[in-house]
């Protein structure tokens, strides 16, 4: 398959320290590592290899003994799918201390590592997440929004001329089986129903009771399954911004899946035409995905939130509590589209207000900037939206 150069930079981190590098399957982690880092095969441990995995599970010290036998030091060693053997991190920690080795520790889920009380290397490793394709990686391919919503942005599906079958296989084999296994769920039909209901509530405020009623499972089970989606990076909660004073804020999170094509298949939608009610939701998710990837890659730890007052005013995204972004799929922006931004401006804490839309040209109305989505994404990845 064609290789598309990615914008994430992990080489800089690995010059100084080890790195946990996670992301859902098929985001391109392994291909990226092989093409960008060129780690020799004798320094690469792939725990998807069952023979290797069984050896290491029986005695994790095997890895340390092999590295000591090669007298390796001051180099990079990659352990792929490290969550399959969390106990291995004790050996990794020892090798970092004794041999100044930097480890690249990859995986599709940090759930087993974080929940088993496993050694997280005592702060000696950074964390980064790999995302599906982002705007600068595909900018020259001239895809319409409808095409992006159809295929999603996972590399194998985006680059395929026929993404439908591979997307359905991804949903059936990975999401419904592997993620269900993460949660030790024995009720696969119920988990499948939950995924479909969760996808129908994508971009919306989470109501565990309603989702449970629609999926036919208890509220507590719904909470656990949403947590599994977050732990496996298949989705994430967008927390509320609650620092407003003049207008009381809601305190319930929203939920967003990690890929547009996956949501479309889970919702059993054949396409997302511009005139449909779904188009606006997919457009909002697309901008969310770009914002989240940008912050993860460039400014990890920067807060991404949304705001909604109890009286009904809403702003889709706030970056660092200072940059307010409203997303509208409209081709012409009117005053009604800016009500939330103007209400939030009255709090006196917002430094920049932006409407991202499908207008043809940028303009400014009062304190609100109206930007075509392509211009917004160009400025975002050129570091002109988020201050340095």
Helix content: 40-55%
Helix-strand category: alpha/beta
What portion of the residues fall into strands of 2 or more residues? 15-25%
| Domain unit count | 2
Count the DSSP helices.
17
Distance between the termini: 36 Å
What low-confidence regions span 5 or more consecutive residues with pLDDT below 50?
Answer: none
Mean pLDDT: 92
Backbone CA Rg: 22 Å
Explain what this protein looks like in three dimensions.
The structure is a single chain. With 388 residues, the chain is of the alpha/beta class. It folds into two domains: 119 residues, Rossmann fold, CATH 3.40.50; 247 residues, no CATH class. Helices cover 41% and strands 16% of the residues. The protein is built from 17 helices and 13 strands. Strands 8-9-10-11-13-12 form a six-stranded mixed sheet, with helices on both faces. Strands 2-3-4-1-5 form a five-stranded parallel sheet. A two-stranded antiparallel ribbon has the order 6-7. Helix 5 links the parallel strand 3 and strand 4. The mean pLDDT is 92.
Briefly characterize the structure.
The protein has 388 residues and is an alpha/beta fold. The chain has 17 helices and 13 strands.
